[in-house]
Every structure is written in C-alpha cells, then in structure tokens.
Amino acid sequence: MKAVVYHGPRQVSVDEVPDARIEKPTDAPVKITATNICGSDLHMYEGRTDFEEGRIFGHENVGEVVEVGDAVGEVKVSDMISAPFNVACGHCRNCEEQRTNYCLRANEPGIAGAAYGFADMGPWQGGQAELLRVPWADFNALVLPEDARDKQDDYVMLSDICPTGWHAVKMSGLLPGETIVIYGGGPVGNMAALSAITMGAAKVMVVDRHPDRLRLAEQIGAIPIDDSKGSPVEQVMEQTNGLGADRGAECVGYQAHDPQGHENNSLTLNDLVQSVRFTGGIGTVGVYVPEDPGGPDDLAKHGKARFDFGEFWFKGQAMGSGQCPVKRYNRYLRSLIHEGKVTPSWIVSHDLPLDQAPEAYKHFDARDEGWTKVVLHPNQTG
Ligand SMILES: [Zn+2]
Ligand SMILES: [Zn+2]
C-alpha cells in the first residue's frame, strides 16, 4: 500500500509499504478515504519530537472497513467509520472512566495514552495511507450514518480537532451566556470557537495573526483578534468591559511564538491568565511535551515554561490540560454533523490525493496563506 512516511526533519515521501492487516482478532483494517494533516503532525514533521524515521503519519482518519478479526462483533465489513486519534483498549480503568486519552494498555508499560502515527504514543502506524489497522475495533471505530461519504470532510474532523476543540471549551467550564477567548485560530482553535458558539457562548474571541484563519473565525460569528496589531490582552479587555473573558482556551501549544517569530512556550498561557477574569477557567489542548531538544532555551528544552503561577493563583483560576478523550464526545458530534447543526468542514482549504502529501506538508508547515486545513484522499486518484 502507499503511505506518507517520515524520513527526517521536513522530509516526507509517499512510499510503498507492507499492507496494514489483521494482527490480533480484535483488529479491523480500514480502507482510508479521508485523512487530515494536523498541526501536531507538524511538530513531528519539523523534527521537534523523537518520531522515528520510517513511520507513517496520520491520526485523523475516516474509511471503510474491509475485513474484521474473529473477535470483532459490532463493526462490519463495508461500514464507514471514524477512528478517534486515541487508540484505547476499552477495558482498563481509564477507558472505563471515559479517559480513553490515557488508556493504560495501548502504549508501553508506564505510559498512558496512545495514538496512530504519533511520537511517544505507542507503536501504531498512521492513516495517511491506503489502509489503517484499527485495533480493538469494536471500541475504537465509530460507525457513520448513510451520509458518511457525502459529508466525509465533516466526519473526518471527528477523529481529533472537532472533539479536541469541544474538549478545550468543556475544560474551561463555559456556561451558556458566558464569554470565551481562544488563543490560536488554527484548525483546533477554530473548532473550539465553533464548539463555544454551539454551546451558547455570548461572545467568542479568537486570537491569531493569520488573516485566513481570522476570516474563518469571523465566518462563524466569532470576533477575530489580530495580535500582530496590538496586545491581545488589551483587545480582550476592550471586548469585556475591562473584566476579562469568563473562559479561555489554549489551542497553540509549545511552539507558541510572537508575531516576529520568537518562540516562547509560556506566551499564550500567560496571555490567557491575563485575559481571563478572576475565578475564570482555562482549557489547554495545544500540545506541550516533557522534553523538547529543539527548544529555544534550557528551560524549554526540558519541557518547562515560565508560567505566571502567582497571577494565576491570585486570580483563583482553574486550568484543565491534556489530550482530548475523543470517545467522550464523538458520537454526539456525529449527530450534530448528521443533522446539519455543525459543519466543521468549513475550515478545509484543500482536498488532495495522497501523492500530493509532501507538497501539502510544505505549505501547511509554512502557514502559507490559504492553507488552513488539508484533507488527503488516499483511495482516489487525482
Ligand atoms: Zn490531530
Ligand atoms: Zn484502556
């Protein structure tokens, strides 16, 4: 089968590799019809993780089940399914408690949480390929309704960014009628904005500096805040009568940088503490890592940040962190898509065949204007 293989910093190619197949009776191989390039792929693509050369990218996957192992009972051949980016066993304590993001059995002993094609997240290959092996298929596959193919650019967002944006807002504690500021207008930040609007936020502000991303935020009724035109904190204060937003979401992660490009992993966190009111809540879903050898200084290299804990504590704020437990939300978001209440594909700028992945990585990594979200379609020739 063909797959997008990592060969070192900013080097990917579409290679011929062995087919994904049944290795355990609980597996189902899936023919991928849509698979996204994600911002977290870019950390790996840039060589800012210990992702191994020769591995396949891709954790945001939709496809058709082509075979099922003997122990798979619910999922059927020819079902169209969404695979959460979290690989989870379904039976461990964390899975039973809806924390599939910290499954205790899908990674090596001592590390909780696993994902397809992801650094430090277990041995699982990614889905930017013609086939993907979905383990514990009855648990991990979400069967899609009859409009699965027509709306696959919407459903493909169910693997990660749509639930991840939702999770950021849930962790912030947003109530209907409250205000929220979202730092980062990339795919996840814009999904957080869509989520907050869907949950009934009175005012949603999205901070970024890329005009294409800010336009997407504006299209769904969020207020764009351009941090290259002045302090985002001051702009949030102006929007909230000087009180700060009720809630905040961090959708940037450890490679946060100022408009001039200087990296500072605490930049958005500290801006959030400033932008959110006393006793407000903050959800952080942007990726942070325990070790970042490519970081700009000694603290950052060891995953540490100059976080304004004093101000955070003084304001009595709360913060949630970590990757999203996709299964907690995906079936409900599936229904919102099916019923036409949300259309997460509005952020998609490019639908491309798998062969064009190397070019797509280049443009998406460079944040080139107009490359807001790329969906690859492995089993379509283009
Ligand atoms: Zn992702
Ligand atoms: Zn588990």
Description:
- With 382 residues, the chain is α/β, with parallel strands linked by helices.
- Helix content is 25%, strand content 20%.
- It contains 13 helices and 15 strands.
- The strands form three sheets. Strands 3, 4, 5, 6, 7, 14 and 15 form a seven-stranded mixed sheet that branches.
- It is globular.
- Bound molecules: zinc ion (2 copies).
- One zinc ion (ZN) binds at residues 38, 40, 59-60, 85, 160-161.
- Residues 88-89, 92, 94-95, 103-105 line the site of one zinc ion.
Q: CA-to-CA gap between the ends?
A: 17 Å
What order do the SSEs take from the amino end to the carboxyl end, as H and E? EEEHEEHEHEHHEHEHEHEHEHHEHEHE
Q: What is the count of DSSP helices, taking H or I runs of 4+ residues?
A: 13
Shape label: globular
What structural class should be given to the helix and strand makeup? alpha/beta
Bound molecules: zinc ion
Cα-based radius of gyration, to the nearest Å:
20 Å
Mean pLDDT: 97
Question: Can you count the beta strands?
Answer: 15
Helix coverage percent of residues? 25-40%
Question: Low-confidence parts, pLDDT < 50 over ≥5 residues?
Answer: none
> Into which percentage range does the β-strand content fall?
15-25%
Largest β-sheet summary: 7 strands, mixed
